[in-house]
Amino acid sequence: MNKITLKKLIYNSYLKTALTSILFIEVVLVFLYFSSNNKLVNATVDFVLEDLKLSVIDRVNSTTSIINEKFNNLENLSAFLQNEHQNFFFYKDNITLDNKPKFDFAPNGMYYKTENNGGSSVVVSKNTKIDDDLKDKLIKTELFDKNFKSIINNNKMLDAVYFNSHDNICRYYPFLEDSFNIFPPDIKMENYNFYYEADLKNNPSKGPVWTDVYLDPAGKGWMISLIAPIYNNDFLEGVTGIDITLNSIIKTLLDLQLPFDGASFIINKKGEVIVMENKIKTFLSLKDEEKGGYFLKDKIEKTVLFENKINIFDYENKQFVKLLKNLIDGGKVFDEVVLNENKYLLFSKKVNITDWFLISLIPENQIISEVKELENQNLSIGYFIIVFIIVFYFIFFIFLYKKAKDFVSTINNPLSKIVEFTKTLGNKSEINSLEHCGIEEIDSLNDNFNNLAQELDKRTKRLIQSESKRKENEKLANTDQLTKVYNRRFLEDFSSRYMKIVKREHNTLSLLLLDIDNFKTVNDTYGHDVGDKVIKLLVKRLKTTVRDNDIIVRLGGDEFLVLLPSTPIDNARKVAKKILDVINSLNKFESEELKFTVTIGSSEYKKTDVHINEIINRADNALYKAKKLGKNQLI
């Protein structure tokens, strides 16, 4: 490729050909601009309308698809809870819990859970007999709370998860303070749609079902529930439900951000308005109506269903009503309608799980007015271009001819310095600066390059510091601060990867679960400082006993886990025996407050195990049995 200097480029191109060529082109373009402007405007209107139609349909479909997907996910969660709770009642007699919450009678006669232990609130109707069997059920159903909490924390759309029993027990998460003051003292679950709509009469399929919109007895407003019956053989033990407030659904449905001053409303198949934007009332010339309400000064003793006085099927424009009914019956998603002498684009989409329809209206005159405004702007721009071309090219031709030589030398030197500067950018430890040349644009470019060089140097240093800090923080996050061994977070991250390796390579894996005997007595007798010394002494004994590739993890408090890769259970128990022997033999050399023993539970990987917690649970059961046998031993 032949190269040319900047000086020759300016002389040859600008003076000989550029001006005349550009002038000719600009004249032709202006002529074409004005001659095609009218056709362009008409084509733009058609294009905008078609593009708007596709865009809004896509937005409506996307919004309803999001809701449908969320509802489908909730149905899967409901089925999971249903299966878990039915298994619970089938095996209830085999379940034991160490941590038992406190219950007491409220002044209004209800039996309730008195303290928030991080789980659900619980209330029992004052008419329910409180006997040992019921108390046992109240305690054992605490097992439900772990999944209740997980579901609420991971689903922003949800308001509550609950279990209501046939004997009028309400287990409700999240915890409600003074829950006995929220529900009627003689609460009957069979009076509420979130219970009776799941029974055999109303739900013979026994699967999860959606309720109608109702007023929440817990005071959370209007909502719908996804409920699932819990059967023990053919006996209905109760109903497990997931609450979704009406506002959370409406916010998602109406967050369409429609262009051209569009607006939306939601109706059910009966034409009753669920929610309506104020602009829709303007489109339809509707007056605000006084709506019936429900005041929460009294407790809700039975289902209060949602009602609305506005029914769009009663609207005076019968053509519009007929069009809406056809859209609902036929599933059509787009049409056009005239309201009060104004033409609107109408879009509709059904929310599959409910009988709701999302209806959107966009005034066509808003679209046309913006296009007409664009046409006027184009004409103004065209006139301005003509004047500008005449004046500019007359002056510019004279100026460029006289100043070409000065222009070349003025810009060529600083540009050459910039070229040289960029060649060494990032390669030198010492940063040089470009000097100003007096041309504002080039000076600004010089400043930008100077700033770029300095910023590059700063960011490189910050990146090095940030990476070092990140590695240090990662190490601290995975390490127990007291003992300097791994913590539970490390175990969760490591075990998820390692379990896959063990399963893929058909390897063996055993673990030991250790618990310091009577550790609470040590803390109570000698104080927590001595307790910390005992914990660190245990870690020291473990490190001298296990292999270098074995992993020691502090699960919390005085509970430790030793992960033994590629170790069968027999060898793991030998290691556990060695740990007991080492601790017992070295106790004779320690002062009285530092003497301690441990109890160890062991377990190994099975082919059916998916998560490390399954192995830990078996080890925990073994530890529990060992504790019952007298401590300071292993199973």
From TrEMBL:
A Pfam family matched by this chain, by name? GGDEF
Query: Top enzyme class of this protein?
Result: transferase
CDD domains associated with the record = GGDEF (cd01949), PDC1_MCP_like (cd12913)
Enzyme Commission code(s) on record: 2.7.7.65
The residues covered by the GGDEF domain are: 507-635
- Name the residues that span the membrane: 12-34, 381-401
User: One GO molecular-function annotation for this sequence?
Assistant: diguanylate cyclase activity
What name is this protein filed under?
A: diguanylate cyclase
